């Protein structure tokens, strides 16, 4: 009869005692924050509805023994809209929905789509082009490194268009009119003879209704929530273009402590979120534009290509001006401009004006 040594028995008991610890599920706490309410922006809503479930799905598919405890804080409950970049850097949130349009000084290269109006109305094409720039030009990543965060993905808005209290069927129709918009979009009115008015989407309705402005520039997907055609019933598809406007970021220290497999999942889920959110945004914009005639007095008009050309050519080359400023600041402005336009053209876009060439 074979005898089992006491050493063997002790080892077996030790292994059994260690097993629960060896197979214990790794618990990871991640807080996701945004300054806006999810109802205001479909890409943000899809962080909760798509990105988080996608991460969970991929963790399960990879058989990782990881449990993420998600905490979601939207509508400024943790971070105000303009504080997401710094708040994620400081660890107030682990993951943040960062509106890049709020930080032309801190994230200058992320403004490239706003500097190239009339390039394309295809939201998906813009998203793909921006992702390729991030993959090929190190300075894009360096912008986020300065703030101690990692960009996981980005999202874009449907093409900005003109809402007005008067009919616009040709370029000259805006001359002498007061047109409101925000930030970088104000420069799209240069050379038009219109008076640009700095404002924001929460003020457009009342400003048009009371005659403070004659019109405003915003993406049509905002129509269902904001009812803009009630105040400005003429909606002209000028074709200012789809705009890259937000990034999903994660605190760099938090990211680096995560298992490599989970880092990969977060990046891949982010890419999937970009594709899904951009497609939803494109469809939402088209559907909202088509809904305008359902409003009392609502009318739509597609500005002919010839009139778009007039508008674009009346403007100074705002893209080249931006590229020159970026170059003076030590950034590859000309390279980014040319790369972005090339990516769009390679994807089938036919820009009204080739900003990198003239």
Briefly, what is this?
The protein has one domain: D-Maltodextrin-Binding Protein, domain 2 (3-Layer(aba) Sandwich). The protein has helices spanning 6-22, 42-61, 84-89, 123-136, 138-145, 204-209, 223-226, 252-257, 260-291, 305-314, 318-328, 333-346; strands spanning 26-33, 66-73, 95-99, 149-164, 178-181, 195-198, 215-218, 234-251, 299-302. Strands 1, 2, 3, 4, 5, 6, 7, 8 and 9 form a 9-stranded mixed β-sheet that branches.
Note down, in words, how this protein is organized:
By secondary structure, the chain is of the alpha/beta class. The protein has a single domain, classed as D-Maltodextrin-Binding Protein, domain 2 (3-Layer(aba) Sandwich), CATH 3.40.190.170. Helix content is 41%, strand content 20%. It is built from 12 helices and 9 strands. Strands 1, 2, 3, 4, 5, 6, 7, 8 and 9 form a 9-stranded mixed β-sheet that branches. Strand 1, helix 2 (42-61) and strand 2 (66-73) form a beta-alpha-beta unit. Helix 4 (123-136) runs antiparallel to helix 9, helix 4 (123-136) crosses helix 12 (333-346) and helix 11 (318-328) crosses helix 12 (333-346). The longest helix has 32 residues, at 260-291. Mean pLDDT is 93; it is low at 1-13 and 15-22.
